[in-house]
TrEMBL record:
The keyword Zinc-finger applies. Residues 45-77 form the SWIM-type domain. It comes from the Eukaryota. Keywords: Metal-binding, Zinc, Zinc-finger. This is Uncharacterized protein LOC127150872. SMART domains: ZnF_PMZ. The keyword Zinc applies.
């Protein structure tokens, strides 16, 4: 089955949808071409769409748009999917699992393997 290359996983779509909904109650000021100040209640966040950063750190760490990023990208009419890491693209997830996954066994099977040993972990 072929998916458009920028189609996001359901998980990512849900996260972005939630962020977009949250962003509707925010106000935004443009600092320059790439940087924005986003105001939400009494908090203030700085989004830089060129560096793909937000001071809340979600965009930097999870590589998926936070609500502050959503409002900034929407202000510039930029496609949210293109600013989400390729990791979340369906096409990449399919490639990741193409080789198949091996079952890891039951808890008891795992316990039997490690019985009697200290699992190689030594006390400090
Ligand atoms: Zn943010």
């Amino acid at each position: 089955m072929e998916f458009p290359t920028t189609q996001l996983s359901i998980y990512a779509e849900d996260m972005i949808r939630e962020s977009l909904a949250q962003s509707r109650s925010m106000n935004i000021d443009s600092v320059d071409q790439h940087e924005f100040e986003v105001h939400h209640r009494k908090e203030q966040f700085v989004v830089n769409i060129l560096n793909r950063t937000c001071s809340c750190r979600q965009w930097d760490l999870d590589l998926i748009s936070c609500s502050h990023t959503c409002i900034a990208l929407s202000t510039r009419n930029l496609n949210l999917h293109l600013y989400t890491d390729k990791f979340y693209y369906v096409s990449n997830l399919i490639n990741l699992y193409k080789k198949g996954t091996r079952p890891i066994g039951t808890v008891n099977q795992i316990r039997n393997i490690h019985q009697g040993g200290n699992d190689g972990i030594l006390p400090p």
